[in-house]
């Protein structure tokens, strides 16, 4: 399967193409469902983040990235770099939805000898371009990939998924400056702004605002959207990737636990606890919300 | 205001200093020229630097192949991260900065972006060990100690221009990450006088000798050879085993050369902690070689600023210091320190 997207013509509202939105919302549902199933296998996982970022991943894998599911090393593929290794559970769910790994394999998540370790590693998983986890690495590697691909005349795009907490790392800003300096219009950074990091709300750990102004001041094209609004995401991605002249960043405000009211309203924590008996309830709530 | 006549300035603690002896044969910018020449036939080779192209001899490559040189600014984390990204898409990057920045500041990026995926990225570190009078900010006295623990990484400490010219293509050919301790500027040319050819991962006995074995790396091989020549006049027979590859270490050659009947001393332009000396000591112990063993290297301290010859004398790296150390060791022939007295009951 090759995902070759026909971008919506500029100026066309994504809302004008309801089929596209429905298709991506369905994909987001299945990504969330996969994530819940994986979470249940291990009784843990960064389920809050996975549910929060599912719409973003659905749009990226269902609408933007060019790849061949059966050939993850295809040289012309767009590179998807997951800086945030702990979001592996979300990435595996998206890979399964995209057909890069079989959905049946998801039940091995986090188990010994699985290709799907709790923290993402490139050498383990097809489609995983880098080993994230030590935060602040993804955008630097993306910089080199984008420079290299352009140098080689390869039209592939580089997409780096970061988190807002990761913006604490100075290396992210070294890379941000570098991308702009080198005019890397073939690079898109996507930031999951969920306002949460290990020690608490981002606003209290290390203030990152004004977020849009920062990126703009670093020379980037910036869009900020509700990262749980598929139509808004599609519109923003279309705008950013239509003949870009600079590196682009999509700031996505997301809600951890999105799609499962029980988890969405739970006290916000970097590592969301889910009791054993709650997984089925979570699945039921997810389905209910999706079909409503 | 003092009116005293200023004394002649004999020394300088400038950043860029040459360790070549006066009148020594040198070769200009051997790294830059070797890389530029290699890139003629190898379109995948690219060069990067972090605002130090001019000071790491990368400017030679930049002039020869401007389309393949990438200026990353004074940002070593993205320098190494981006080099990894370039290797991921099929290029063979050489990324240069000073050793202190590549190892102390950007180690996480060298380790996780380059070494863990096993990418063919060649990190080139200028001012290794004590090759600048600028003080601890620029003296990479512990770069080998930092990097030896990094899996996958090949580490080369060349002696001179001959080593560098041969190492550059060897490192490019090596399918994995490497770190080269760069000697820059006018680099001594020494090893062409010996029956020697650089081979990655191999140690080479440059001269034989009955009394002492010097196991040396980097520029200290040059000093070891000079010391051996001087001691010849005193009828001291000194062998020199040159170990340009620090990792993987040629343990077999080291154990084979370290016969128990001669004094074994390691010589390195690096702290005595965690560099060649300790690696050789471990090799000898594991190899069951029981011999008198010592280390010539930098002390475990932050070093002073000053002129390089002064500092090399003070910290034991000059030829004079090496000769004196060998003589002292030979004059103190007690093979092992006496056992400490047992504590009284």
Overall structural class of chain B, as computed from helix and strand content, comes to alpha/beta
Which superfamily, in CATH terms, is the homologous superfamily of chain A? Thiamin diphosphate (ThDP)-binding fold, Pyr/PP domains
Tally the helices of chain A: 10
Instruction: Specify the CATH class of chain A.
Output: Alpha Beta
Distance between the termini of chain B: 67 Å
How much of the polypeptide of chain A forms β-strand, as a percent range? 5-15%
Rounded to the nearest angstrom, the radius of gyration of chain B is 21 Å
Q: Work out the count of structural domains of chain A.
A: 1
Strand neighbour order, sheet with most strands of chain A: 1-2-3-7-6
Percent of residues in helices of chain B comes to 25-40%
Please summarize the sheet with the most strands of chain B.
7 strands, mixed
Determine the strand fraction of chain B and express it as a percent band: 15-25%
As laid out across the biggest beta sheet of chain B, the strand order is 3-2-4-5-7-6-12
SS class of chain A? alpha/beta
The appropriate CATH architecture of chain A is 3-Layer(aba) Sandwich
InterPro entries (chain A): THDP-binding, Transketolase_N
Family (chain A): Belongs to the transketolase family.
Protein name (chain A): Transketolase
Cofactor (chain A): thiamine diphosphate
How would you describe this protein?
Chain A has helices at 18-42, 47-64, 88-98, 138-151, 170-181, 202-205, 211-217, 230-241, 261-264, 278-291; strands at residues 79-82, 158-163, 187-193, 196-197, 200-201, 221-226, 248-253. With 292 residues, chain A is of the alpha/beta class. In chain A, the strands form two sheets. Chain A has a five-stranded parallel beta sheet, sandwiched between helices. In chain A, strand 4 and strand 5 form a beta hairpin. In chain A, helix 1 packs antiparallel against helix 2 (47-64). Chain B folds into two domains: 26-188, Thiamin diphosphate (ThDP)-binding fold, Pyr/PP domains (Rossmann fold), CATH 3.40.50; 201-331, 3-Layer(aba) Sandwich (Rossmann fold). In chain B, helix 8 (219-232) packs across helix 12. The chains are: A alpha/beta (292), B alpha/beta (345). Chain A binds chain B through residues 75, 79, 122-123, 129-131, 134, 136-137, 139-149, 151-152, 154, 170-171, 174-175, 177-178, 181-182, and chain B through 46, 67-68, 70, 72-73, 75, 77-78, 80-91, 93, 108-109, 112-113, 116-117.
């Amino acid at each position: 399967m090759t995902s070759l997207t026909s971008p919506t013509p500029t100026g066309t509202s994504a809302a004008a193409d309801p089929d596209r939105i429905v298709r991506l919302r369905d994909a987001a549902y299945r990504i969330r469902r996969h994530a819940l199933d994986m979470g249940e296998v291990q009784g843990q996982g960064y389920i809050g983040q996975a549910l929060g970022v599912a719409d973003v991943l659905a749009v990226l894998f269902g609408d933007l990235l060019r790849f061949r599911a059966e050939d993850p090393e295809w040289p012309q593929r767009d590179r998807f770099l997951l800086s945030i290794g702990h979001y592996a559970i979300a990435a595996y769910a998206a890979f399964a939805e995209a057909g890069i790994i079989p959905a049946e394999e998801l039940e091995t998540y986090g188990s010994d000898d699985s290709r799907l370790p709790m923290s993402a590693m490139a050498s383990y998983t097809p489609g995983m371009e880098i080993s994230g986890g030590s935060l602040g690495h993804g955008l630097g590697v993306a910089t080199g990939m984008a420079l290299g691909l352009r140098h080689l005349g390869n039209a592939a795009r580089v997409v780096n998924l970061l988190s807002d907490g990761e913006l604490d790392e100075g290396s992210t800003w070294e890379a941000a400056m570098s991308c702009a300096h080198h005019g890397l219009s073939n690079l898109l950074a996507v930031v999951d702004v969920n306002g949460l990091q290990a020690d608490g709300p981002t606003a209290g750990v290390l203030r990152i605002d004004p977020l849009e102004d920062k990126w703009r001041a670093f020379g980037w094209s910036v869009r900020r959207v509700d990262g749980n609004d598929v139509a808004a995401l599609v519109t923003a991605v279309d705008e950013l990737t239509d003949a870009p002249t600079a590196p682009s960043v999509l700031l996505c405000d997301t809600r951890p636990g999105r799609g499962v009211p029980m988890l969405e309203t739970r006290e916000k924590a970097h590592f969301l606890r889910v009791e054993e008996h709650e997984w089925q309830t979570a699945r039921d709530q997810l389905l209910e919300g999706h079909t409503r | 205001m003092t009116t005293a006549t200023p004394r002649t300035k004999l020394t300088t603690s400038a950043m860029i200093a040459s360790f070549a002896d006066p009148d020594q044969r040198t070769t200009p910018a051997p790294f830059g020229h070797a890389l530029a020449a290699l890139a003629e036939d190898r379109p995948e080779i690219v060069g990067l630097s972090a605002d130090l192209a001019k000071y790491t001899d990368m400017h030679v490559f930049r002039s020869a192949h401007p389309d393949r040189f990438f200026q990353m600014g004074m940002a070593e984390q993205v320098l190494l991260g981006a080099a990894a990204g370039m290797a991921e898409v099929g290029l063979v990057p050489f990324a240069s900065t000073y050793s202190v920045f590549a190892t102390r500041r950007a180690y996480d990026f060298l380790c996780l972006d380059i070494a863990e995926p096993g990418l063919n990225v060649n990190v080139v570190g200028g001012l290794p060990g004590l090759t600048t009078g600028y003080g601890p900010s620029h003296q990479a006295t512990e770069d080998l100690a930092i990097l030896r623990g990094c899996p996958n990484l090949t580490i080369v400490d060349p002696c001179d221009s001959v080593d560098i010219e041969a190492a550059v293509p060897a490192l490019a050919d090596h399918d994995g990450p490497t770190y080269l301790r760069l000697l820059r500027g006018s680099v001594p040319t020494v090893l062409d006088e010996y029956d020697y050819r650089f081979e990655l991962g191999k140690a080479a006995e440059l001269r034989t000798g009955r009394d002492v074995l010097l196991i040396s790396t980097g520029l200290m091989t040059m000093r070891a050879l000079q010391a051996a020549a001087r001691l010849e006049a005193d009828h001291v027979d000194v062998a020199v085993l040159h170990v340009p590859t620090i990792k993987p270490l040629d343990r077999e050659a080291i154990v084979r050369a370290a016969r128990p009947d001669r004094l074994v001393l390691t010589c390195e332009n690096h702290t005595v902690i965690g560099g060649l000396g300790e690696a050789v000591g471990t090799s000898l112990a594991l190899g069951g070689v029981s011999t008198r063993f010592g280390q010539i290297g930098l002390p475990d301290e932050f070093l002073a600023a000053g002129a390089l010859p002064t500092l090399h004398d003070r910290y034991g790296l000059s030829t004079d210091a090496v000769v004196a150390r060998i003589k002292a060791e030979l004059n103190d022939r007690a093979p092992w320190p006496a056992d400490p007295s047992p504590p009284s009951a």
